[in-house]
Design a protein that fits this description.
409 residues; alpha+beta; 4-stranded mixed beta sheet; binds flavin-adenine dinucleotide
Length: 409
């Protein structure tokens, strides 16, 4: 399997690296003040990162998923907080439109998001429906040319300032559909969720749909097929979290090496102590084992993407061909789903473990939020919960192997 990048992609990744270094101090300041880092959108917008894997036709850079994953890995070094902004805007934002929207919807929404004028978010989770999205209670009904939505979503990343979100609601027949929602729609309210224990430069919102009116043309994908849209978005979301986790681990390792080579206790540097070396060795194994899982999952996701794009070119009824009866699609989708779940499960556990070990290497020096390591530790707790809690991913991985009748979630 080839994980090489072209010279052009390398130049882009160098730009990502440069912007990451440029905004580093602002990110620290924003984190401590618990606010959005207002340099992120203009600086990353300037190099095209806000539309990295989105087709050039809609103002993106049109990069493949592996290049996008490499960019997220680099961004992850600056923290899960920063990386989460991109995951919400791109992986479970724009990519949903790129994959599922019709041409008119893509032309209407994507260009404004790739240039950063409009930020995206994903509203699936509800107070009574987290790991089990099929139990959502947000409802929609048809009224003339519109749909009317009622219900609540919570934890929506970027939700306080996103201009466009995708959301998911149940129709009178109990089937879930996906919708594109302009956040200035009548009956749409967003409120910041406060007192988080980490991810402090990301803003999460509770969203209320109070007879929220959405034009019928904003139905996303087939009516009643909303869970397929949401679940496919979660493949991209998991991949993005897993990619960012590698960056987190690299940063924890590098900082731990620097600190342990400098700090002396009991007559020699910490780096000479075998128990400290055990922490470093585990971090290295965590990085290397995660890396290949993530890159392999990215390649599998790209194959699925290429297949669906080829269907779109060949058949205007492509939406109706994305089902279990289509064996080629089904196989590619299951493989992408499985590998993204494995990568996310492994890399997020490894990132939290690495951050925890790095705190130990730093001792009290990592016990204040001014420390990068402290922030990695706090932020890496969330990644074990969101984009599919890790317990549920274990069940998914097992049941994909065992077969449908063993599905236990
Ligand atoms: C910081 C943050 C950002 C988020 N961003 C978004 C966002 O942008 N958009 C969005 O829609 N949602 C978002 N979420 C919500 C997130 O996806 C959910 O928190 C997640 O799906 C878990 O749901 P829950 O919190 O309701 O936990 P629950 O579903 O109540 O689960 C609680 C625990 O039970 C376990 N569990 C559940 N079912 C089973 C089972 N069958 N067997 C064994 N164990 C089980 C879970 O693994 C978990 O450990 C975010 C959450 C956080 C914390």
């Amino acid at each position: 399997m080839n994980f090489e990048v072209t010279e052009e992609q390398k130049n882009f990744l160098d730009k990502v690296d440069r912007v990451c270094k440029l905004i580093r101090d602002y990110e620290t300041k924003a984190y401590l003040e618990e606010r959005i880092n207002d340099r992120v959108i203009p600086e990353f917008g300037e190099i095209g990162m806000l539309g990295c894997p989105i087709s050039k036709k809609y103002g993106g850079l049109g990069y493949d998923i592996l290049t996008y994953v490499f960019a997220l890995e680099r961004i992850g070094r600056e923290g899960n907080s920063l990386r989460t902004f991109f995951s919400a805007h791109i992986s479970i934002g724009q990519m949903i439109l790129q994959n599922w929207a019709n041409e008119e919807q893509k032309r209407q929404y994507l260009p404004e998001t790739t240039n950063g004028k409009s930020i995206m978010a994903f509203g699936l989770t509800e107070p009574d429906a987290g790991s089990d999205p099929s139990s959502i209670v947000t409802k929609f009904e048809e009224k003339g040319d519109n749909y009317v939505l009622n219900g609540k979503k919570h934890w929506v990343g970027n939700g306080t300032f996103a201009k466009v979100i995708t959301t998911y609601a149940k129709g009178p027949d109990g089937k879930i559909s996906a919708f594109i929602v302009d956040t200035n729609s009548k009956g749409y309210h967003a409120e910041e969720m406060k007192n988080k224990i980490g991810l402090l430069t990301v803003k999460n919102a509770e969203i209320t749909f109070d007879n929220c009116i959405i034009p019928k043309k904003n139905l996303l994908g087939k009516k009643g097929n909303g869970l397929s849209v949401a679940y496919s978005a979660l493949i991209d979301g998991r991949l993005s979290v897993a990619a960012g986790s590698i960056g987190v681990m690299k940063d924890c390792l590098e900082e731990s090496i620097k600190h342990s080579q400098k700090r002396e206790q009991h007559g020699s540097t910490l780096a000479k102590k075998q128990l400290i070396q055990e922490h470093l060795a585990t971090m290295i194994v965590n990085i290397e084992s995660s890396r290949w899982l993530v890159y392999r999952a990215a390649v599998a996701r790209q194959k699925l993407h290429d297949y669906v794009e080829s269907l779109k070119e060949k058949d205007e009824n492509w939406l109706f061909l994305l089902n279990r009866e289509n064996k080629e699609y089904s196989n590619l989708r299951n493989r992408a789903d499985r590998l993204a779940a494995i990568a996310k499960l492994h890399a997020t556990n490894a990132a939290f473990d690495s951050a925890n070990r790095a705190v130990q290497v730093f001792g009290s020096f990592a016990y204040q939020k001014t420390s990068r390591i402290a922030r990695h530790f706090l932020d890496s707790r969330a990644i074990i919960i969101y984009e599919g809690a890790n317990e549920v991913l274990k069940l998914k991985i097992a049941s994909l192997e065992l077969g449908d009748k063993y599905q236990s979630y």
